[in-house]
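STRUCTURE REQUEST FORM
Protein name: non-specific serine/threonine protein kinase
Source organism: Purpureocillium lilacinum
Requested output: structure tokens
Priority: standard
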Amino acid sequence: MGDKREPPRVAGFRERQMKSIIVNGRYQVKRKLGKGGFGLVYDGDDILSNEEVAIKLVRTRDDPRILEHEASIYRALAGGPGIPQVFWYGQQDDYYVLVQELLGPSLEDLFNFCGRRFSLKTVLLIADQAISRIKYIHDKHYLHHDIKPDNFLMGVGRRGNVLYTIDFGLAQEFSGLASEGRSHGRTLRYASINNHNKRKQSWCDDLESLGYVLLYFIRGSLPWQGRKAAIEEEKDDLIKDMKTNTSPSSLCEGFPEEFATYLGYVRSLGFEDRPRYAYLRHLFNRLFVSRGFKHDNVFDWTEKLHGLVVAS
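Status: completed
Returned output:
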């Protein structure tokens, strides 16, 4: 397949065109930050408050229901810990637009910044907040369906140590009825075994995906990364078989047993079983204390950034 990127001249024109957009007479589009799960994400300015915001845009000719759905999920979760504040949703010219608070880098960005491995302390700090975020979403009767490093962002300023959950385009309300169903979230690397088997998902599936995220951070990679297949279905089956045939103890070999205990527990849950979130947090907090770590909100990237400032 050829390179589908726009020629620089065309891309530059489009960028200038985007910067001319003022959303709802208040939010000035600025610099492109990247692609979200659906649509493009820009940073922008609130002209009235002079504060920075994030602006997500989806073309009206594309399916607008995804962004509308995501906006409705944010409204349902509003005010919760680690849930970005939404300022406006609506149509502007040829786009559907979601304006929300601007956050910091994703955990994937920070993982790369730190040399693609996190210390045990940082992984445990992440685990505690991430389990809390997932519990809040579940308490509101929603499943995220796409737990991965790119969908966890750190805050900025005084909330720079707060973990946020984003990208609810695939989130669904939990129906409580087990059945066969389409799989949600096609990030195969972190998908639950139920997801691979196209079973309807439950609370345990978000937590299983989080387990793979935590192992990715502490191991540096997962055994099924980089697997090649002629078609997506074959790759799906290959990764599913590796997950199914690899026990938690084998997957977590060489690392604290709490990671295997976590993964074994969430994999053992049935469709209707409500996870014991407090137990999972306690599991990792007990390990945190036993290693003599301090709850000082000093992550690996905090230390590295401080070192760069001192060196300069």
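Reviewer notes: The radius of gyration is 20 Å. Residues 9-13 have pLDDT under 50 and may be disordered.
Form closed.
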